[in-house]
Write a structure and sequence with these properties.
2 copies of one chain form a homodimer.
Chain A (H helix, E strand, L loop, with lengths): L9 H4 L3 H10 L4 E2 H8 L3 H13 L3 E6 L2 E6 L5 H8 L2 H4 L6 H9 L9
Antiparallel strand pairs in A: 1-3, 2-3
The first copy, chain A, binds a DNA duplex through helix 4.
DNA sequence: TTGATATATAACCATATGAGAATATAATTA
DNA sequence: TAATTATATTCTCATATGGTTATATATCAA
């Protein structure tokens, strides 16, 4: 089997840095394709193809207006990524530093509770 | 050009669900390879190859002990992912709901300030 | 030493890729 | 209508992939 398709989920889609760049731009507001082409300095077909992937995973929505397609961010599609990586945040937070490993081994299972 | 190597960065490495699973397990504490093989129900070579990728992006560290290799999470390697996706969190937070889009268009650029 | 155990690597394969180039489609303008 | 503009699609290609199988390497046990 080959690698999973980029359109499989948000994780695969945003593994490509250019697509993250596109989302970063769209975070500032809706944009027609040509804006992205200029801002990124990438060929138009490349931009369209990246947008297709982002569309397929639901990370962007399109609004048609004349011959332009205005793309808009749909950040909700990125929530699974945030939800997953969020659980690792404590590991690099200086509050837990190196201690968390020890604590987790002591805990075993069962939630002892904690702030936040 | 083909897709970027899985070992290019954390984004590419964790696009593969099995590798996220491995990290999730290691979040509970250090584990020898065979534990992962049993817990995942995946062939040993597969696990070793996934671990190699995670090692190359710095997401895991190894400790050798006899003939076992104990793998341990290094969550700091996931911070770039968190840092990136964090900026989108407000978009699905109910506090901003649909309003954020309007606000961002009004802002244009320049930080008007806000709580938090 | 011989055998078993733990892990890594290599060889093979089917497949999806990102980039580029060319072209298709649709909307606008002259 | 013809030309132009905006965008999407198709084609081709080199490449890295994830899984499988087989094998290599190292450690431990008998």
């Amino acid at each position: 089997m080959a690698r999973a398709a980029t359109t499989t989920d948000a994780f695969n889609a945003v593994a490509e840095p250019r697509r993250r760049q596109i989302l970063d731009i769209l975070a500032g507001g809706e944009r027609p394709v040509n804006d992205l082409v200029r801002l990124l300095g990438v060929s138009q077909p490349q931009v369209s193809k990246h947008l297709r992937v982002l569309r397929e995973v639901g990370a962007v929505d399109v609004r048609e207006e004349g011959r332009q397609r205005h793309y808009r961010l749909n950040a909700l599609a990125l929530k699974p990524i945030h939800d997953w990586v969020k659980n690792y945040e404590r590991s690099w937070s200086e509050r837990f530093d190196r201690l968390d490993v020890v604590l987790e081994e002591l805990e075993g299972e069962g939630d002892g509770g904690g702030d936040e």
